[in-house]
């Protein structure tokens, strides 16, 4: 999805702001594909989660592809943008500073448990300010603190030529152009692009493309798409090549990694 120019705004709506009395507030938005929530920030932290669908969350020089298996912890004051990659039921938790379970000043990818998902659904149905909302909020905060975090992040560059290349691969990770071919498209030399990848992103072109493909793999696998089709959609020559790359990154095969979700 192309990045659209937006203004950074601060949204602190009083009817959704968390407080010491109501430390967890939920905002529900059902969105169509290709919608953009323009870059903005809050005075509180939040957990961005989709019950269904896939979103792309961008904060600073990092972006994440977020399927229902994951959520993103975004600290207070962080300017963030959310773009829907398909029809999405977005459920965002706003958390008061006194209750925030993560002290981190940086975003964290959360491995969402079945319990947290059901708690979020229950909170969306609870009456505002009643005892049930309070109990569900306490359970949500406890469960958030128990979630595993995942070292998954797609770094974004500042250089316009390199950013054009990276955005194109995020839109279509199966593209198999070489770095030399990309150089012709973005108006740079292959040597310049290789240097920029190392200087701005601390990795090679091949390593960055692998991260982008992995980010797109999770939603496909979570929906039950056969691994052979996932491999093909992401530009791998075979299922075994994709599985080997996945195992090198996560220490498990794709089937083992996603099967554990059902055993919680």
Describe the secondary structure blueprint for this structure.
Elements: E1 9-10, E2 24-31, E3 36-41, E4 45-52, E5 55-59, E6 62-66, E7 70-74, E8 80-84, E9 88-95, E10 108-111, H1 114-125, H2 131-146, E11 149-150, E12 154-155, H3 160-171, H4 179-186, H5 190-201, H6 205-222, H7 227-233, H8 239-250, H9 254-259
Parallel strand pairs: 1-3
Antiparallel strand pairs: 2-9, 3-8, 4-7, 4-9, 5-6, 5-8, 6-12, 7-10, 10-11
What does this structure look like?
- By secondary structure, the protein is α+β, with helices and mostly antiparallel strands.
- 39% of the residues lie in helices and 23% in strands.
- The protein has two domains: 9-150, Sandwich (Jelly Rolls); 159-263, Orthogonal Bundle (Arc Repressor Mutant, subunit A).
- The protein has helices spanning 114-125, 131-146, 160-171, 179-186, 190-201, 205-222, 227-233, 239-250, 254-259, and strands spanning 9-10, 24-31, 36-41, 45-52, 55-59, 62-66, 70-74, 80-84, 88-95, 108-111, 149-150, 154-155.
- Helix 1 runs antiparallel to helix 2 (131-146) and helix 7 crosses helix 8.
- The radius of gyration is 19 Å and the shape is globular.
- The two termini are 34 Å apart.
